[in-house]
Amino acid sequence: MALRNASDGTLLGYSAAIAAAISNDDDALLDLVEDLMRGRTGGTLDWLSRAEFAYLARESLDDVLRWHQVGAVEGMTLADYCAALGLTYPACLDKTARPR
Predict the structure, then answer these.
(1) Crossing angle of helices 13-22 and 27-41, rounded to 10°
(2) Which residues contact 51 (CB under 8 A, 6 or more apart)?
(3) pTM of full prediction above 0.85
(4) In this structure, are residues 33 and 18 in contact, taking their beta carbons and an 8 Å threshold?
């Protein structure tokens, strides 16, 4: 789940940085984008510069959107992927073609 301050709900840490990069603060979408980012970097995001981090976040969002639009890739839909990893499928994907 996206990391939020318990008292006022503001985003913290990677969640805040990803939200700023993709202009969206939907918790489920932030979690999914972070998961894809970590998949590309071997699990850690600490070594990325601010510019690299933002670029990777936007690129990962584009991957999410393409997968959502295409449907099954090698037999797995984005919803299947989310279910397999215990991630919440971002409902915002069904509301608009490009959640921004």
Answers:
(1) 100
(2) none
(3) yes
(4) yes
Q: Give the CA distances from residue 95 to residues 7, 52, 54, in Å, rounded to whole numbers and listed in that order.
A: 29, 29, 24
- Please give the structure tokens belonging to residue 61: 């969002």
Cα distances (angstroms) measured from residue 75 to each of 30, 49, 85:
24, 35, 16
Length of the chain: 100
**pLDDT tens, residue by residue, 74-100:** 999 999 999 999 999 999 998 755 444
The tokens of 96 are what? Answer: 């608009």
Supply the pLDDT for residue 50: 95
Beta bridge partners of 4: 11
Structure tokens at 33: 């984008």
Residue owning tokens 């006022």: 8
Structure tokens at 78: 């984005």
pLDDT value at residue 100: 43
Q: What is the C-alpha radius of gyration for the chain, rounded to an integer number of angstroms?
A: 13
